[in-house]
Amino acid sequence: MVDDELSWYYDYKFQSKHYPSPMNYLEYDCSVYRNNFEPYFNDYFFEILKRRVSESFIKGDNIVKNDLSGIETRFLNFYRSFNGAGIHETYVGAENPQKLMILLKKICVLNNFDPMCVESAAHSTVPGRALFFLELFVQMNYFDVIEKFQQTVFDMDESEQRRLISSPSLMLVPWDHQEEAFNEWSKTKNGIVEMATGTGKTVVGLMTIQKLSEELGPNQEGIVRILAHSTAILDQWRQEAVRKFNPLLDETKSYKSSLKFNNVTIHFNTIQKIVKDATKLEANVFNHDEISEDEEISKIYERAMESIILDDLNSKYYSDLLIVDEVHHSAAPSYRKIFGIKAKQKIGLSATVDDNKGNFKLNILERELGPVVYNFDLKNAIDRGILPKFKWDFHTTYLDDTENAEFEKITKSILTKLTEINEESNVILKKSKEVETEFRKRKYPLPKYHVNKTHFLDLKDFISFTSAAQSCKITLPPKWVELFALIFKRREIIHDSKPKLDEATKLAEMYLKSDKKIIMFLKRTETCDEIAELLRINFSNVFVVHSKIKDYKTNLEDFKAAKSGILIGANILNEGIDIPDAEIGINVSSSKTRLELIQRIGRVIRKKGDKVPHFHHYSAIPKLLDYYGFDENLLSYIEDLSLTEDIAWSQETALKLGIDLKINDTESNDIKRMEQYVANNVSLDEEFETSVGSLNILKILHPFYERTNVKKPAYLALRRYLQEYDGIEISDSDWSTFIFKSFAPDHDYSEGNPMINIPGHYWILLLGGRNPENIVRIFNQYEKQFS
Asked: Is residue 292 within 8 Å of residue 244, measured between CB atoms?
């Protein structure tokens, strides 16, 4: 109580603040009051300090445990060193506890001490009060850091302390992998950092800002520009910069408000805004008639105009450091104009740039930002204990009769349209030449199956080629656009399938009854609202976030604060949302890429206490037999083998993470038909185009024949398990067990599964038709090539 009274007194005396004491001491002479309390407080305070010091140090060398007689002097020297934080000269306390906390944490980090000692002292005492300093002194002394800490403070005058408080320097010690990523980027100050969702790539970006600030001269000002495709991501960046650099700033403002530190200003811009400005400049500059019939003169004029556009763009968006978050989006044709911004230093951040290394998306980004300098995937994160292991279930549902009829109708139109397009081989060849020319001009690698193309093998081939064409802004013929529209319309049936949504809603209800915290991923905003309305009949803790809700951030914050509930959203939940205590993920929207799937998994596998996250992935499929009968030729249907590929993605990712993937309904005839198509129609001697890239059997088999140290190749153990298998059809769980034991025979499985990275292993199971003898034949067939 005396500590409080003295603190209030000094606040009143020096800052004319309202005196909040319940005792109306202001009616009396305050100096008399202080003179009576202060001696008593000082004597008792230092007696407590001596007791705390003598009782706290139970091991290790420390600087004061054998010298309690000098503890008062040592403490006062420690306390008075913080003159830049507004401390009182006589009473032990600070006028501005926020400034003090910032200064303390930053000095800890400068000395590579965990600032947790500051948080620990603040947890049990009021920051800035005398007992706070007492606890902090004891905490620091326990870790033998006072002398080094105090020396750092003594080396700084009052103005330097204030500059440190307002500088963009972190108030935390980065994790090892964040230091590794930053160090790799620092070698050239250009490049791409890939880090799994939840592993702190934002901190790496903040570290680059701090480095820029430290390297600037005395009178230099640095400009940092952070770009992202989402306002939610930019808002989170601004909030994180305030929290980790200087909490005295207002974190409630939107990304539109720049942050000004002592020598660095941080601006936040959406990619769309920069592209819009660039497009306006282009419209103004190129709004003219043909300049000349001479082709060479026209080209020179065009280059001159492009230079003017870039100059105008850079006058508005120039930066010393350019940070592009979720950089994989920036390879899209409409977004690439952002790379016209000049910056001395550049960094791209993403969970992963692409599913397939070496394709044109990665080449675009590497050319503009530099190579991938660091990769820290989910496997590494779980292996190092940054993220927890989790449970993963794969659910299949079927279209209802109405959906199935519509699906069949659209499918017939798709097959007709594809036939019409293939009849115009000259048009396909012309577009193939255009793509080849543009790819060479941009120095992108062009897949060999897109060269001199005269027909499309199937819908997969069509989609792959047209995606490449669109990336170069090549205009598609009308029939091609019509086919794309049909494919999209058919996919919508899969996304909005009622049986799938019903099953997922039932699962959500079950978890809500158990007071769990759930995130549900959907495709469309309308569906989000519909599911929310159904759940609100019985539950009040239902929160929705999507782009059509103006104040969705309030809903997000309410969900974060809730002990249980469900957060329902569309694409906005994929990136830039941080909810560490969410433990259940329900993915109802089919993921377009493995990156999207991994990002959604990352939303719920954050480290938080002892929670064991559980991720549910739903996939809806048509009833094939209704309209395909018993025709084995499903070649034209290949675009919709997404279920087989979804399982392959999931199995491969689960194996990397040491997770047992539970697949429901694998006994379905329709799933078996799709698997049988793969087994019957994929040639093992050739590459086969799928939505996850070319299925190259040699690359898939290579790890099985590789020798690690003196151990035998894994295929020998796997072959033995297959030969001893008591059955004619291998289940998914048995196949995963074989893979684990073949590659990690000495692992202690009582502690859980190991983490193994064997890309594409699931396709071996499908290529062999789940038959152990057929799979053994595959390994025998290729054994000589690896011997």
From this structure: no
